[in-house]
């Protein structure tokens, strides 16, 4: 097997104690080296986005040195009922689920229930006969697909939008993310879908993290929702995070909207496949979680603090390092979406990682890691500044509008 970027697979991750149900500490911006006056400019931008109907409502949450210094809601959670956005609003986090599922894999690596070098077929036997679509025909992969490939999206599995026609056709036919099937069935369907390239030779965004969800089930002996609850959500007191919104919390669930990007908003798709108001069969570790700003900040601060929060140790520091530093092979210099190259941005075992500055997101910082979700939710962490930021909204199609509008202002507020 060609060498991967150097990392150890002997991490030990142990969850020992439950974090007390206290809230995160807060501070005035000036107490942590930030300017209240400059942060007020974030208010101005968010109010303008709401007033011009670029978004219905949103939330911005900022923590520095482990303390929350800014946490504000804007606009409406539901325009039709005039329900205001609140800081405890529950939202569809979609691909913000990926980092949490990836953390689950790193926990199991620490438990020695798996190795990141393990072939995926060890947990999903039907993957033993995977093929690669070369464009000129189907061939056997040069090496087995392994767990690390799934973590960093170098597996060759897409969402059906690769450059390989046969792989795309097979993905569409298999319908692996059908909301009515289990993760076991999803994996079996994917076994018939060719990879878009040989493992480790390219990068493509796709169902890799959903496959990791199935590996978690096999390796742990628990359903994915149960594993995440007992090993991450309960220890971190992430009380509003899960795969659906219980009935008693529906009044806090934000509506999703379609935006034309010019000031016109219409109610978004809440069809059966995107209905998060009842238990779901398909537990999508890649895009199925709902959560709140508070809960997700607890997860991010655990990562930022080397795997611990309060009394809970979720991950070892070494595991966090692997998640927050790019693990892409040398043959894959940066990530991309379609024709959009994010030059200078690599990918670790859970997060995108900014390795150098470029024209892509010029307000960012080297070392910054983060990601987002399909309903235009975003988060980023700057280790250099010891700061974590979450911007939430519920807007289709996916857009960087809010993150890019406030990121420079937030960094500028550091004194």
Key structural traits:
19 strands, single chain, Beta-lactamase, 415 residues, Methane Monooxygenase Hydroxylase, Chain G, domain 1, 10 helices, 3-stranded mixed β-sheet, disordered N terminus, alpha+beta, 2 domains, 8-stranded antiparallel β-sheet
Describe what you observe in this structure.
With 415 residues, the chain is α+β, with helices and mostly antiparallel strands. It has 2 domains: 29-102 and 225-412, DD-peptidase/beta-lactamase superfamily (Beta-lactamase); 118-223, Methane Monooxygenase Hydroxylase, Chain G, domain 1, CATH 1.20.58. The chain contains 10 helices and 19 strands. The strands form 6 sheets. It has an 8-stranded antiparallel β-sheet. Helix 1 (36-51) runs antiparallel to helix 10 (401-412), helix 2 runs parallel beside helix 6 (208-220) and helix 2 (97-110) crosses helix 7. It is globular, with a radius of gyration of 20 Å.
């Amino acid at each position: 097997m060609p060498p991967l970027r150097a990392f150890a697979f002997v991490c030990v991750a142990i969850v020992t104690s439950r974090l007390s149900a206290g809230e995160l500490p807060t501070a005035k911006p000036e107490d942590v080296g930030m300017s209240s006056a400059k942060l007020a400019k974030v208010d101005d931008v968010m109010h303008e986005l709401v007033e011009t109907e670029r978004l219905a409502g949103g939330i911005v949450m900022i923590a520095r040195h482990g303390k929350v210094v800014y946490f504000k809601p804007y606009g409406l959670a539901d325009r039709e009922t005039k329900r205001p956005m609140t800081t405890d609003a529950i939202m569809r986090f979609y691909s913000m689920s990926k980092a949490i599922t990836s953390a689950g894999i790193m926990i199991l690596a620490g438990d020695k229930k798996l190795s990141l070098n393990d072939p995926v077929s060890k947990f999903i036997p039907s993957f033993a006969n995977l093929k690669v679509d070369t464009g000129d025909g189907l061939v056997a992969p040069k090496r087995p697909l392994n767990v690390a490939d799934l973590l960093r999206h170098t597996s060759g599995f897409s969402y059906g939008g690769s450059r390989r026609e046969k792989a795309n056709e097979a993905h569409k036919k298999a319908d692996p993310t059908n909301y009515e099937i289990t993760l076991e069935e999803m994996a079996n369907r994917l076994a018939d879908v060719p990879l878009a390239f040989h493992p480790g030779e390219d990068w493509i965004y796709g169902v890799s993290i959903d496959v990791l969800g199935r590996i978690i089930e096999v390796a742990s002996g628990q359903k994915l929702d149960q594993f995440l609850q007992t090993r991450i959500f309960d220890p971190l007191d992430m009380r509003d995070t899960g795969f659906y919104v219980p009935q008693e919390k529906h009044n806090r669930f934000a509506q999703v909207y379609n935006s034309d990007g010019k000031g016109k908003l219409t109610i978004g798709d809440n069809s059966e496949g995107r209905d998060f108001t009842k238990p779901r069969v398909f537990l999508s570790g890649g895009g199925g979680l709902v959560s709140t700003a508070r809960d997700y900040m607890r997860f991010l601060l655990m990562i930022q603090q080397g795997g611990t929060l309060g009394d809970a140790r979720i991950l070892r520091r070494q595991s966090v390092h692997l998640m927050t530093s790019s693990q892409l092979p040398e043959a894959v210099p940066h990530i991309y979406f379609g024709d959009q190259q994010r030059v200078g941005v690599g990918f670790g075992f859970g997060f995108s990682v900014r390795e150098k500055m470029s024209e892509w997101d010029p307000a960012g910082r080297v070392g910054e890691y983060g990601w987002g979700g399909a309903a235009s939710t975003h988060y980023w962490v700057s280790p250099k500044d010891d700061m974590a930021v979450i911007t939430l909204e519920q807007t289709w199609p996916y857009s960087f509008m809010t993150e890019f509008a406030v990121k420079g202002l937030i960094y500028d507020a550091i004194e």
